Amino acid sequence: xxxxxxxxxxxxxxxxxxxxGSMGPLLNLxxxxxxxxxGDLKARMAAKDKQVDKLRVRVIAFRDYLADGKDAMLLSDxxxxxxxxxxxxxxxxxxxxKGGGDDPEDSLEALGYxxxxxxxxxxxxxxxxxxxxxxxxxxxxxxxxxxxxxxSRMAKSFDELxxxxxxxxxxGVMNPNDKRLLIYAPxxxxxxxxxxxxxxxxxxxxxxxxGLEETTYSAILDAIANSI
Amino acid sequence: xxxxxxxxSGLIQKTDFLFSFCREKQPGEGEDSIAYALNECxxxxxxxxxxxxxxxxRYPGLKGKTGAYLAARAACAAWMDWFETLGPAGExxxxxxxxxxMDYLRRCEENGGEDSGSKLLGSMSRRLxxxxxxxxxxxxxxxxxxxxxxxxxxRIYLLDGEGLAQLTEDDLGxxxxxxxxxxDAPLTxxxxxxxxxxxxxxxxxxxxxxxxxxxxxxxxxYFSTPMxxxxxxxxxxQSAPNIRAWEQSLADAIGKAAGDxxxxxxxxxxxGSFDNVKRQLARRCDVVYRTYIYxxxxxxxxxKQQLWEHYKPHYxxxxxxx
Lengths: 228, 322
Description:
The complex is a heterodimer. Chain A is of the alpha/beta class. Chain A has a single domain (3-227), classed as von Willebrand factor, type A domain (Rossmann fold, 3-Layer(aba) Sandwich), CATH 3.40.50.410. In chain A, 34% of the residues lie in helices and 20% in strands. Chain A has seven helices and seven strands. In chain A, helix 1 links the parallel strand 1 and strand 2. The longest helix of chain A is centred in the first third of the chain and has 24 residues, at 24-47. By secondary structure, chain B is of the alpha+beta class. Chain B has a single domain (3-315), classed as Phosphatase 2c, domain 1 (4-Layer Sandwich). Chain B is 36% helix and 24% strand. In chain B, the strands form three sheets. Chain B has a six-stranded antiparallel sheet with strand order 1-2-13-12-9-10. Chain B has a five-stranded antiparallel sheet with strand order 3-4-7-8-11. In chain B, strands 5-6 form a two-stranded antiparallel ribbon. In chain B, helix 2 (67-85) packs antiparallel against helix 3 and helix 6 (226-239) runs antiparallel to helix 7 (243-257). In chain B, 53% of the residues are buried. The chains are: A alpha/beta, B alpha+beta.
């Protein structure tokens, strides 16, 4: 892209994955998508004659603070692909579906961690993308606050998390031009609220009892590739 | 496609030539569309850029084309239809334009079947999204009267002896042309079937010879500074022996930089001939090269910003804000 004029494009992607027991077979598909993600995105970009000069991926796997204690939140640093592909693969393969307690999950806390990632400032152009997969709605923020490992600096409410992301015309902690949020989850609860208020977002509604269709994964890839 | 016009005194005669191209970055995947029309009373120069991000869903009933591809063509057809309704005088009927536009977009959706992206929700989801940049020209008392219509980040420019002027402000939340090159910001307004949108309108008069053209973001969006786009326009012009050669070399040069489809629809007014266009813009080409382009490659980001600050007031001298 713009090679004659020397512009460089750096892309960071934070994959936020529901790792609770209910994810079961869906998690295997999400992991499989995550592992083929670099190759698939590269192929999409090549088909559009676009290139990314630096791609980094971070993984956050979440469960419930109250039910799962120290296993509630797995947080990785950003890994550069393809250079750190083996570490990335080991990380993703290590995510196992378990725990979760009741139906809702502590997914808003995971989103909070994702928003506060150390996003790249490199490159002439940048894209900061959060992709979240979940089969259920989030708990209220702070539902797991009684857990000893609950993060002290987490947003105190959905309103505060909304401020972190930023609504249309308002700032947030991420660069408003660079950020994108793609969510694969049921169109209910806070996911529905997010779509109504947060800017630069797309929701791919999941249907109860149905897995992650190939067309949805393809649409997520398209959404990322077309935004670059 | 370059078209030369005949001598005389009406709008057709004041139009030296039309120039246009609509190039796909990837063959078969293009989502731009262009239009140009010229009669004795009016001219229309238009580009449309289907928004590939939010309009990536495909319509099985319309050969599996994307919403972006269809929206750009529907908007193009609507504007062409509407142009045919315009009489020799009077204000263009904006309400009628909007009706035509919505009719064409609805027809796409009715015939297209379920869009594979139609279930998507959120602030970035739009059904049949496209930009538009349209210049309507008519002869006026003191030159060519121009009505600008736009939505999104396709632009209308004027290039005359004073240099390149961006006439339409992008719907990108107030970013200037230099910020836009690195910010890659989301559109705050675009034509679509699913969300409210504005078609901005403004008027100006071209009192001197000039090249007026509409361009999609693939044309201007892949340089490190806006000055490089002006220099590319001028330098390819100075090197071209005729209109056709200029059109070709300009498209080829933009294509070397562009990471997207790139399209232009434009016209030269009141120069008298292609050679006069070259003559009247030769000095500006030198000035731009000496002031902004020479040594630019080795400039730091901060130095480029300083050059932009120097260039910006002149480049924005005719900028119309929504």
